[in-house]
């Protein structure tokens, strides 16, 4: 699960950075505000890469997905991009857990099939 979720979060890191560049063109937003918010979101996406397998990591990932969708109120394209990344996040969590379960089963089968050396 960690690899799939981390890949999604790294993709979000870049999308958040590009959204910050687009948001800078809005005359109502100051550059410092845009980069403070974008920088915090980018930092959180990197931080979550290491926290995915810890308790609460997936929930924080969902919170980031909601924030990414909500950023569409500033950069309208982010409604679409946020939805795409939310779908990728769901797929990463869902299929990542299935892969982890399959790996555990295979490891258990491999461990039980080795002959005992007595």
Question: Average pLDDT across residues?
Answer: 92
Shape: elongated
Fraction of residues in H or I helices:
over 70%
Low-confidence stretches: none
Q: How would you spell out the order of helices and strands?
A: HHHH
**Quick one: biggest sheet?**
none
State the secondary-structure class. mainly alpha
Radius of gyration over alpha carbons? 19 Å
**What is the tally of helical segments?**
4
Q: Per DSSP, what share of the residues sits in E-state strands of 2 or more residues?
A: under 5%
Distance between termini? 37 Å
The total strand number stands at 0
Keywords summarizing the entry:
mainly alpha; 4 helices; 118 residues
Task: List strands and helices in order, with pairings.
Layout: H1 2-23, H2 31-51, H3 57-70, H4 77-113
Your description of this structure?
It is elongated and about 70 Å long. The chain is mostly helical and 118 residues long. It contains 4 helices and no strands.
Brief synopsis:
The protein has 118 residues and is mostly helical. It is built from four helices and no strands.
